[in-house]
Amino acid sequence: MPPHTSSVIAELDSLTELSQEMTRRAQGRGAFLVWRAQARRIASVLVKSGRVEEVATSSGSGHGVHAMTGDGRTALGSRDEFLAEPALALLDRTIDAASAAASLGVDARSMASLEPVVARAVPPGVDAFDRIDLDAAADRLGELQRELSGRVPGVNLSLSYQADLDAWRIVRSDGTDVLFAMPRCVLRIAASSSGDARHTVGASVSGPHPALFDDPSTIATLLARAESAARLACLLPDAPSHPAGSFPLVIDYALAKGLAHEAFGHASEADGFRSSILAKDGRFRAGEHVGAPHVSIVDEPKADDHAWQPYSASGGKRLRATIVEHGRLADALTDPWSQGGSGCRLTNADRAESFRSAPLPRMTNIRIEVDDPLPAPGRFEDYGPEEVRDLLAGAGVLTRHPRVVFLSGYSGGQVNPATGDFVFNCKAIYALTPSGVTLHKPAIFSGSMFGALGAIREGFGPLLLDAIGTCGKWGQSVPSSGGSHYFLALDADPSVRLGGR
Amino acid sequence: MRTPRSGSAGVDVDLTRLIRALGAVRADGHAIAGWSVYVAETRRASVGTKDRQTGDAHAPLTLAESLTARYKLIWDDGRVSRGAMERRAIERTPEPLLTASRAASFPDPDAVDVLGPAAFPEVATHGPAAAAVAAGGIEAFAPRLAAIRERVARHGIRTWSGSMHAAEGTSRVVTSSGLDIGGRGTSTGWSATFDGELGAGHTARDVAPLVDLAGRLDHLVRFVLALRHSAASPREGLLPVILHPDVVEDYVLGVLLHNLDGAQVAHGTGAFRREQFGAAVPVLREDITLRTDPLVPMAAGAYRFSQEGVPGSPCTYVDGGRLNTPILELKYARRLGLPPTAFPAAMDTLFLEGPASVSYDDAIAATAGGALVLSVLGVHTQDFTSGDFSLSAPQSLAIGPQGLNGRLRATISGNVFALLRAKDLTLVRFPGEHTPGLLTRCRLDAA
């Protein structure tokens, strides 16, 4: 019996004739073509306060025509279907627009020399996205809601499930033909306290399989995280604010992902090198010392990860990029259009939200690694603030610093790559001392990327890279992920501050 | 049968097949008893600039055509399906998608309302100049790009990034209850960020006169130049602070709209409880009003009908500090026992009013020792439910007795509801800005 084929993949597979016709037309007009066909299916369920509030499905497909004329000017056309006649007309209009772009002061640009690639990366089991039982998903969310309400009474709970299969076929006029599919499924819980002063705290887990809501290990992790979030939501209204200032810090792996993503990842994206603080005169400052010598930052697609993307939006195989190698800048995140001037190798880091979007160099799964991390036995979810304090005390950190501020949970961040200013926020702050633990409301964590990376002293535990998020660079939302060791300890640095009351 | 006019900017979206299928489809033995479909067809032209390079591969000249539909189906057993469909399904093969949508149906008794014919207001939303650009007349971008480049050169701006766009589209709502309403609209806008520090922009229904763009750019340049010099010895503590209209829109109004959302109210997950709406007890200062008016001609937020077919009409959410109504789509209107409301489709149709207002110059004069916060980082990281805020404000300007007094890298913190209840809250009129700035007091710390 032949294997099941996902309808999304079958749709992209059926485009060979059209892709060849598009390529011939582009070549006939003297243009280089990157043709991106995308097919995407999303199904979602939302349960609030114990009742199903939303079950929705959506599908979208279309193609983007990225044309570069012989004189080096580009334009992008897009249309949401795959009919040949309008597709070819769109290609003609796009090439015409690129040819006329000089009137807007558009400069001619060159792109990196590329080798044709023919490849396919479709994880097994994506056909399951055609058979998702949304009734079962809704029932499961309801069960989880009841379970959590029993564990932590008095909170309002919102639970959601989303299954997203995002498949692309990239064809270039140099013979490249790459097809890949990115399965992403997420379970999220938001817990809100129910008093007069309300706080909301969230938790999530992700995986590539639509049936993750039936996976015992995944659900155990979700419940552990969600219970902590719900308890925190109940406690935060009465928690005091924390004073502003620079402090010895401990951050968890999700915040470390935020630090790596916001502080260093964006500044190493080569499309911004004409203004990035990590570049000079448009070239990456490779080799320069930017952090402690036992600290590295690595970005690469990880199998089964939320932000996994094996090939770029231009059809190149995405490479591992060691952005910071033992404290020194090494690789940048480059694409065929930015690599030439960057002084760095091509890492094929371009991604796009949709066929309508111009691809940009950006991260996938980014992590901070520390040489010789100290042990942190057990699961990450086993560590509450008291356990973190014990971990620090055992490693002598509380001897070095009698008061350490523990930032727990990541709730998003932002960076200005031109100045190196970054911010991110946590879900809670705990002041850890030898004598106790005190909860405070979350506060913004901001400062200089160099100060933050230079302040990292110890890592605790194995790498955990499942902190997920959405990156919104230049108005395009793509999944992001990453992490670090369970916990990182940072010395106080005057350029890195906690906001305050 | 008519031929679909794809690429017609939606002037004549053909729904014949879709409407026929809605009446004929059966799935698992069930027929569709009621339905509502919102269709939008758009064409758009845009160009970006990244670090002074206009139209490079990362911000190219872009031409886009799209046709999408959102649907709600009420099956004959009362289950409801919602979803989105693409051009192919709308124009040629709707049956497979409609049949498959049965598998995504669920009981949702509050979502069964389907609107019928109504009286719809007239409001101008279409601009011929914007339509011409959307159709490919991109040369209209040229003088605007030139105006930006001229200021960049004249003021020694190191770099700039931004974008310009124009779009034209048609939307239509059709329901099984006999509603069939359509309309045509355009939009155009630009944005520019100087030195990677501070940006400005504007969105409207038609191409604004060049003088409008020039005025906004000159205000931006003034602040960017002021940020180049550091403040001498910034103060910290509870200080008078002016929040720029961009900060008010991004954060203050963002928090209010989040908590006014009907779903948040219905589920008890927002800051406001159901029983507070219509009650006599104010939740904000007793002179604060927050309202929307989607009938402002040629406003970016102007509209005749919502995606559900609710006629556009003015609506006051907060009246004299008291909660009047949440922002309600049909489902949560039914659940909360209130009529559906208009929603603010853009900031130029949202009005924050009430407290005394002063001119920008008078506000600066009254804020000596404080700061002007031009933008903030980290808005999306805040807990909008609690209203607690802790925001990085690296683009702030200290204010001295003589006015703006150099750059201040700061964090600001407090609670937004407390700010909106404070006696000393003052609205600040910024030249060219629809939304007022706020003169208030909050914690400010040097970063």
Fill in the keyword field for this structure.
heterodimer; A: about 500 residues; 2 domains; twelve-stranded mixed β-sheet; seven-stranded mixed β-sheet; B: about 450 residues; alpha+beta; nine-stranded antiparallel β-sheet; five-stranded mixed barrel; globular
Q: Main β-sheet of chain A: number of strands, strand sense, barrel status?
A: 12 strands, mixed
Indicate the structural class of chain A: alpha+beta
The best one-word shape of chain A is globular
In round numbers, the mean pLDDT of chain B is 94
Question: What is the straight-line distance between the termini of chain A?
Answer: 66 Å
End-to-end separation of chain B in angstroms reads 66 Å
Low-confidence spans of chain B: 1-11
Mean pLDDT of chain A: 94
Q: What's the total number of strands of chain A?
A: 23
How would a crystallographer describe the biggest sheet of chain B? 9 strands, antiparallel
Radius of gyration of chain A: 24 Å
Query: Assembly state here?
Result: heterodimer
Describe this structure in words.
The complex is a heterodimer of chains A (501) and B (447). With 501 residues, chain A is an alpha+beta fold. Chain A folds into 2 domains: 7-237, PmbA/TldD superfamily (PmbA/TldD fold, 2-Layer Sandwich), CATH 3.30.2290; 249-498, no CATH class. Chain A has helices at residues 7-13, 16-28, 84-99, 134-151, 216-235, 253-265, 339-342, 385-394, 397-400, 449-454, and strands at 32-48, 51-68, 74-79, 118-121, 155-172, 177-193, 200-207, 249-252, 279-280, 283-284, 295-300, 321-325, 328-329, 350-351, 360-361, 365-370, 404-416, 421-433, 436-440, 444-448, 456-471, 478-490, 496-498. Chain A is globular. Chain B is α+β, with helices and mostly antiparallel strands and 447 residues long. In chain B, the strands form 3 sheets. In chain B, strands 1, 2, 3, 4, 5, 6, 7, 8 and 9 form a 9-stranded antiparallel sheet that branches. Chain B has a 5-stranded mixed beta barrel with strand order 10-16-17-18-20. In chain B, strands 13-12-11-14 form a 4-stranded antiparallel sheet, with no helix packed on it. In chain B, α5 packs parallel to α6 (210-226). Chain B starts with 15 loop residues before the first helix and ends with a strand. Mean pLDDT of chain B is 94; it is low at 1-11. At the A-B interface, β2, β3, α3, α4 and β17 of A face β2, β3, β4, β5 and α2 of B.
